[in-house]
Amino acid sequence: MEHCSPMPTPLPLQLDKVQDQQKEFSDSTYFRSLAGKLQYLTLTRPDIQFSVNYVCQKMHKPSVADFQNLKRILRYVKGTITMGITFWRNTNFDLKTYSDSDYANCKEGRRSVGGYCTYLGRNLISWSSRKQPTVSKSSIEAEYMSLSETASEIKWISSVLRELNVPLPQTPELYCDNLSAVYLTANLAYHKRTKHFDVDYHYVREHVVLKTLVVTHIPGEQQIVDIFTKSLPIGTFEFLRSKLGV
After folding, report:
1. Would you kindly state where each structural domain of the chain is located, as residue ranges?
2. Which residues contact 207 (CB under 8 A, 6 or more apart)?
3. pLDDT of residue 197
4. Most buried in the list 31, 48, 58, 164, measured by CB within 10 Å?
């Protein structure tokens, strides 16, 4: 792959349209070796977090299509090999986090993919993209589960900053593009579509009540975490990649 042609995005837009979905790849050990190496690269390249997470889910029994997707990631890295995270020295200490989910992303188990990214001022300091542990019955539940996990991350980062004697000038903000999920964090009334939510997922609501967290709605086109939850067209991908500081 040293002299391969670069690709503009890590994964194709329609993942289910890649050929040879059912044909098993002959060397699964080689597949796992390459995917494992790419996992190390995600430590400095958040733009490939979703794509690497996606191919790593295929390690047990990869298909020829999965291997094609893996090679596409390598071709993308080839064309962006000089990229990395940019850290800005002159910035504030406002803690802001974006949270999102892609409802029922997994075609086999119908579990959703959740993701978040956290900024300290202009600098990206934390990010995640992974399949949710349980199946959601609605997009609201998937978004709410992602909000809860993100709230835990904010709580941990805030405690680390306190130990380092780094004051937070403002209450941490959490941005979500699902208006119903945002309302749910502030509305204590139960609804028939949300009464089945697990108690753990109301963690974010507790912090909103305690005023240690502010949950804010943002338009979908401003949701940076889309790059961590789904495959995107070239223009959208490049725009969100720039927002990550890569």
Report:
1. 15-79, 95-243
2. 151, 155, 213
3. 62
4. 48
pTM above 0.85, yes or no: yes
Phi, psi of 207 (to 5 degrees): -70, -30
* Strands in 40-162 per DSSP E: 95-102, 113-120, 123-131
**DSSP secondary structure letter of residue 25:** P
Letter for the amino acid at 194?
A: T
Q: What is the pLDDT of residue 189?
A: 55
C-alpha 73/C-alpha 47 separation (Å) is: 11
> Quick one: CA dihedral 124, 100, 152, 131, positive or negative?
negative
Q: What is the mean pLDDT of residues 187-210?
A: 68
Buried b (16+ CB within 10 A) or exposed e, 207-235: bbeeeebbbeeeeeeebbbbbbbbbbeee
Contact 203, 156 (CB under 8 A): no
